[in-house]
Every structure is written in C-alpha cells, then in structure tokens.
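[job 4471] stage=fold_predict status=RUNNING
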Amino acid sequence: SGTQKLDQRESNVEESSRSIACYEMSPSSGAGPFYRRRDLLFLLTVYASLSFVTNFPSGFTNSSVNTAVEALDSFIARSYHHRGYALDEGTLALVRSATLNAWFFFQIFGALLSPMFLDEYGRRQGYIIGCAVTLASTVVQLAGVRLGLPELVIVGRSLTAVASPLCDACLILYLQETAPLSMRGEVSFFCEIGHGSMCVLGSALGMRNVLGYALSPLLLSSIPPEAISLLVVWFVPETPKYLLIMRNNRAGAIRSLDFFLGEGVKGNTRHDEILWQIERERAVEAGKQQSSFRECLSTFHIRRAIALSCAVLVLTLSFYPLLQSSTHFFLAIKLSSSVSEFSSMLIMVIFTLSCVVGSTIIDRYPRRTLIIGFGIITNTFLLAFAVLSHCARTHPAVKYAALAAVLGYCISFGLVLGPLSWFVATEMVSQRHRATVFSICYAVSNALIAATNFATVPLYRLIGGAAFIVLFIVPSLFSLVFIYRCMPESLGKQAHEVVIEIRKSQESLYEVDHAPLLHDVDDDCWIDDDEAFKF
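[job 4471] inference complete, writing structure tokens
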C-alpha cells in the first residue's frame, strides 16, 4: 500500500508538472503571463535596475582598482612612507593583495549572514540594508584615502564585501521568484550582464586619463549611484512568493504580482494560475520549520545540489584574478601601460557582450551540456594563456597571442559559465531552502576565491603562467568529471523534478527494499517524513 501511495504521488506530480508546462508554453499564452508588451518591458526594466543596484558595488570596486593599479600602489607606498616605512616591491605586492582580497574574505561572512536577513525580514528589507551599508562603506573608504590610512580603506572594502552577498542573493531570489518559468533562464543572465557592465564602467573610470590618476575622485564618483540604488530598492515591492508563502499575505502578494507582471493579468486565468502555483507551495510548506544550515548539509539531495553548484563555481575561479589583476599580467608579458589598461577594459566589454549573447541560448540547450562543453573550452583558452605568457618572456611577439587567448577565455566564460553559475543552485532545491543553499555556495565560492586570488599574483611572479595550471585548470578537471557523473538536467523543470533525478543517483547506495523511498519527490513538496531522506 505504501508503494501504491508513492506511485499515486508521482502521478500527481507529473500531472501537475504537465499542467504548468502547458500553461507556460502553450501557443495561446504568447509571452508567458503577459498580455501587454509594455508589461514585459517594464519587468525587464525592473530587472535591469536591480542588476545595476546589485552589481555596481562589486563590479565597480574590483575593476576600477584593476586599471587604477598604479594609483593604488602610489597611495599605499605614500601612506607608509609618511609613517617612516619604505616598502620594497614584494612587500607592496603583499599589501596590495591584502587590500584587494579582503573583499573575498569578508564576503564569506556576508554570505553566512544573508539567510537570516532574507528569511526573517524579506528580500526587500535585505536589499535596503545592503544598499545602506554599501553607501556608508564608500564614505569610510573615501575618508581612509583622504587621511592616508590604507587600513581604513580595507575596513570600508570589507563592509562593502559583507553587504555584497546579501544584495546578490536578493537579486537571484527576485529573478527566480517573480519571473515566469519559461523566462527564468534568460532573465537570470541579468546577474552577469549587470556585473560585466559595471566592470566595464569601473575599468573605464579607473583609466589614468579618466579618474584613475588618484583614488579620491574614483571613490567620490561612486557615491551618487549608490544613493540612487537605495532609492530604487525602496520603491520595489517584496516578491509575491515571499509575501504569500512566508508571511501569508495574499493581498500583498496580489499587489506585488500586479507590479511585476502588470495589471493586464489581473482577473484572468493566467493571474489565477500564477497564484495557484504559489498557493500550492504555501500549502506544502505550511508547518515547516525555517531552513537551516544543518538541515541542508544533512539532507542528501540538498547536499548533492550544494556540491554540484560548488563544482560549477570552481570552474569560475580563474575569472577573478583577471578581473582584479589583468593589468598586472599584461604588464608582466611586456605590453605597454596604455595597452594593458585598454586591454583590461576591452576584456570586460567582450565579457559583457558575451553575456548578452548567452542569454539568448541558455534556454535552448541543456544546462548540463553547456556547462561541460564551455568548461572544457574555457580551460583550453586559459591553458593557452598560461603557456603563451611563459613563452612571451623570451619571444616578445607571442604576447599578442597570449592577449588573444584571454579574449577567447572571456568570450567563452561570458556565454555560459559566468552567468549560469549564479542560479544553478537555486534550480535544484525548493523555495524554502533557496536562500540558505545560495548562501552556503556563495560562502564556499568566496573562500576559494580569496585563497586562489591571493596566491595568484605572488605565484605568477615565481613560476609564471604555470600558476594558472596549478590553481585553476587542475581543479577544474576534477570538477568537470564530477559534473559529468552526477549533475541532472534542470532546463524547463520544476524543483521537485530535479530532486527526483538527484535521488535516483542515490539508489545504488541502498538495499532494493528501500528503493521506493528514493523514487519519491521533494520532502518539502509532497511528503511528511523529512527524516527518511537525511543521511
């Protein structure tokens, strides 16, 4: 009888999934739930604004100091000289690395704190808190520059780094909880498109003939956009899913739905279908406790989703040294200062354009195939740069081939890996666990980024391009093997369908008598026995 009940549940799941798929993809539905084109354009404008709000602090902060590396070095050397310390080149490089990589270290703490704010206070309040902290931290950094205190600059960057994961998580959740299923992959590219655009802006303003001649005007220019960001998030409502599922506020959820999808859907069957989906999730999660780190790490399918997401994030680690220190690498292969600065900005432009192109293909091809294929292509370009940059020390003409390899790397990275890594975790878990899982993956990613990014420049000085092979290419090969063996396909699937695929990979670990349990669906969606799936 237990097996019959489980079979009936699976039948109900498949029937519900088919009805949702018909609703999302039927020819009569047009552009998803939109009746008016202006509603779709308004939603995309909201997403673009939130992407700007989220990515300006991280993209601008990290890319501007890349092209303005000489201004940063001059500020550090001058500050310590006034204290009576003369820094040699090696010590200066360590202080610069500490200043830059404090960002990734403190992002770990921000990532671990994010679930508390997001689940307790909501996505909107989390956004407001993150933007307010970012604005205050920029003022702290500006004060540090004016007073000649590098330590105060590090404190300011650290505060921004703590707030950055909170805003990143808010953006991901807004995109996942307000976009129709048929658009979810495309709009999720707003994360990386916004990041790339802000990196281009930071790289351009950080050039010596713009604002990169000194740190004070560079930091001062970031205050007005951050103040505008605070105003933007103030007027954006909470997501309808959070209001209805977490706060049981149906009236507020309807107002939020009208804001994001337009009042053109109000009072029609599409509006009712969307509300029905959210109501179903609320009914399923009624009585459930708030997600926790312990529960996520002790439940097999959530733990596997975290591991797979982290494996994808390992493929992205090599991008961050190029984001922060590409000018340094280009100078090391004997490119001129002006060419190095321009090339650093150019690779960000190419990266951003690649993200735009990638948004048009992400929902046309399987996620798993794209990750594995572009993971191989990206690491091939990185290997080419590692080899060519080493050869450029003895054969100067090869330096342009090394630059071309970096451009190829940015194109392949921007098309798939960079944007997809933001939301692959949230597609494999239920609503209740999304904020916690995203925060865990974000914390692990930033711990790895901090370690590898801090080691890249000193190791590059010692062994040249081989540093990229040791730090990035070898770990990426192991990640690709794990992804190939274990990652399910999530394109066009609801979370519980992906969970079923993950649990099927678990069957061989247990006796046949227990196999029916592993055919069931998400414990947060359809069954009551949470403990049956914790190992």
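[job 4471] summary: The two ends are 25 Å apart (CA to CA).
[job 4471] exit 0
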